[in-house]
Design goal:
Layout lengths: L7 H16 L14 H10 L7 H15 L7 E5 L4 E5 L1 H11 L3 E8 L8 E9 L2 E10 L4 H14 L7 E4 L3 H10 L16 E4 L1 H16 L3 H15 L3 H13 L7 E5 L2 E5 L2 H8 L3 H7 L19 H10 L8 H26 L20 H21 L4 E3 L4 E4 L9 E4 L4 E2 L2 H6 L4 H8 L10 H4 L35 H10 L15 H28 L9 H25 L1
Parallel strand pairs: 3-6, 6-7
Antiparallel strand pairs: 1-2, 2-5, 3-4, 4-5, 8-9, 10-11, 11-12, 12-13
Helix pairs in contact: 3-13, 5-6, 7-8, 8-9, 14-16, 14-19, 19-20
């Protein structure tokens, strides 16, 4: 290769001419001859002696930078190994998050590639979901994405945190990651005061599972009605609430004619047989051990399920790509320096800032909040307010929700849409028979309704539930704050002495009529007051319409009415809500 060859395009053109001349091919005779691609040429350049990467030099430079920066002197856990290559990092803050949110709960494992000039290097994140989003609790870089390497890294994390025993690990469908968790945290017998540990469970990400189904079904059926039928039956199995329902869905799938239909695919000009639906499911998803990883009916181990996907942990990858060189030209020590000095400290500051800002007026908290919403995490506060807004929209549309007290801290809460099908809320467990609470066991409109009406106090919930880290602030901040009083002036620590009567405010707002304004007063009303009144009323009607449409699409079972007259009236309400929403959106566009 000569020095005057400036780029990959010229090199490819020169190589094509050389191949044609060597094979004595005239113009047009090279059709069908596979020329090397630009990526292949680039890989060959990287493998050439002139472009050889100095792996040993980078490892030596990394160790020198660690000694100079003192990354291993601040009480954190840092491991650097050459063969096999491994760099593992855990700070004190990350260890605290691991024990607070991951112990007896769920952890996530995700990886990213292309962050440095060594393309075989992979960066793994071990993360948890906190009361303020997803956070990294450990990260390690390796050049071998194998089960042995992942097990070695997880074993180091386990040795550094011997009391850490996770219940669930959420991963993609990767055999190396699944086996690594099962090998690292197996079941243990009770020893002394230590209770028996049942071992870790592995759950497969719902989003990655769905994408794999769609990708493989398209190969077999294309975008046809058979594709929709097969995907719908698989989703029924995955979303079944009980094991009996899942078994019935499996039987329905196996009795369908798509299950054993022979499949063929055009390959190299002729039809070639491929694995049918039965063979693909049995080999990939049908084993009972694998079924327990993706069927939701088996996910009964956690009191509160953080989520069913790893989509939240994907944000780690985007942050890393923004911090490091997008083209992947950084050396190993440069990547570690950016991760250890920029990304990880920023994540720690964001977490403590969110804990300090909880309950402040700057974050939207009001001085007259309900008692159970005082001094709580911002995410929990926003979730409760969103659900309360949803409940209020339903009540404006259908009237007040009826609540009936049953035996032993149990209540029947009518949704307002179908009064003949109330939901049973058992506060002492807590539990609700609605789909929202069943899916995550976190919050549902019926439980929030009881708390908003003060029918149930937050203290009446079991201590094991209300003391969960998702519902409480982390006040163990040993880090000195740069601005300790930044939220002090706007902090809401207690109720005011004379609370505002919210019912009176709502009553006055409903009785307000712009035609009743006294024009003879010193401060005359303007057209803006009338426009504001109608804007408020229109916004309320839009919220009610959107709430009705959401309930119709996501909970269609609530709209099953036997009476023909009631069904027609309900359909008319749904059509009016859809028409009103379309008009509003069309006017704004």
């Amino acid at each position: 290769m000569k020095d005057e060859i400036a780029n990959i395009a010229k090199l490819g053109e020169r190589r094509s001419k050389t191949i044609r001349a060597h094979l004595r091919l005239n113009h047009g005779e090279d059709q069908g001859f596979e020329m090397p691609s630009a990526q292949q040429i680039q890989n060959e350049l990287r493998a050439n002696d002139d472009y050889k990467l100095d792996w040993d030099g980078d490892i030596k430079t990394l160790k020198d930078v660690i000694r100079k920066k003192g990354w291993d002197q601040d009480g954190s856990f840092l491991v650097v190994r050459e063969k096999p290559f491994l760099v593992l990092r855990m700070t004190k803050f990350m260890q605290m998050l691991l024990m607070r949110y991951g112990h007896k709960s769920m952890v996530f494992l995700d990886s990213t590639h292309g962050i440095c000039k060594y393309k075989e290097c992979s960066l793994f994140y071990l993360g948890v979901k906190t009361n303020e989003g997803y956070k990294i609790v450990a990260m390690f870089m390796t050049n071998r994405e194998t089960q042995e390497t992942v097990v070695e890294a997880l074993q180091l994390i386990k040795e550094q945190n011997p009391d850490f025993k996770p219940e669930v690990a959420m991963v993609d469908y990767c055999g190396a990651e699944i086996s690594s968790f099962l090998d690292t945290w197996p079941a243990e017998r009770a020893v002394g005061d230590q209770p028996r540990y049942r071992g870790i469970e592995v759950w497969i990400c719902q989003t990655h599972r769905e994408r794999a189904w769609m990708r493989n079904l398209v190969k077999r059926f294309g975008r046809t009605e058979d594709y929709d039928t097969a995907l719908r039956m698989l989703r029924e199995i995955a979303s079944a609430q009980e094991i009996d329902q899942a078994d019935a869905a499996w039987l329905k799938l196996k009795q369908h004619e798509l299950w054993s239909r022979k499949m063929t695919k055009m390959k190299k000009g002729k039809m070639t047989p491929i694995t049918n639906l039965q063979q693909w499911i049995d080999n990939k998803w049908g084993d009972i051990l694998i079924r327990k990883m993706w069927q939701v009916c088996y996910r009964k181990r956690l009191r509160i399920i953080p989520c069913h996907t790893t989509n939240g942990s994907e944000s780690f990858n985007s942050v890393t790509k923004n911090v490091t060189d997008l083209n992947g030209h950084d050396k190993i020590y440069q990547v570690c320096q950016k991760l250890f000095e920029i990304q990880l400290p920023d994540e720690e500051k964001k977490y403590w800032r969110a804990q300090k800002s909880a309950g402040s007026l700057d974050m939207g908290h009001r001085p007259d909040e309900k008692e159970y919403l005082i001094n709580v995490p911002n995410r929990f506060y926003r979730d409760c307010k969103r659900i309360s807004k949803f409940n209020n929209a339903h009540e404006r549309q259908y009237g007040a929700t009826e609540v009936k007290k049953m035996a032993r801290s149990s209540y029947h809460v009518c949704s307002g849409i179908a009064e003949n099908a109330p939901h049973l809320v058992e506060v002492h467990l807590p539990r609700c028979d609605c789909y929202t609470f069943w899916k995550r066991r976190y919050l549902c409109p019926h439980l929030v309704k009881l708390l908003d009406r003060e029918v149930v106090k937050w203290e009446e919930l079991p201590a094991t539930y209300r003391d969960h880290p998702y519902f409480n602030l982390n006040e163990d901040n040993a880090e000195p704050s740069e601005d300790p009083c930044i939220y002090e002036s706007n902090s809401v620590t207690a109720r005011p002495a004379t609370p505002v009567d919210e019912d009176d405010d709502m009553l006055e707002e409903d009785e307000f009529n712009p035609l009743d304004l006294d024009i003879n007063e010193e401060q005359e009303s303007s057209d803006d007051d009338i426009d504001e009144y109608y804007e408020i009323k229109g916004r309320e009607k839009l919220e009610s319409s959107v709430a009705l449409l959401n309930s119709y699409f996501y909970h269609p079972s609530m709209f099953s009415v036997d009476n023909e007259e009631a069904r027609e009236k309900l359909n008319k309400m749904i059509e009016d809500a859809a028409e009103f929403a379309r008009n509003i959106v069309g006017a704004r566009l």
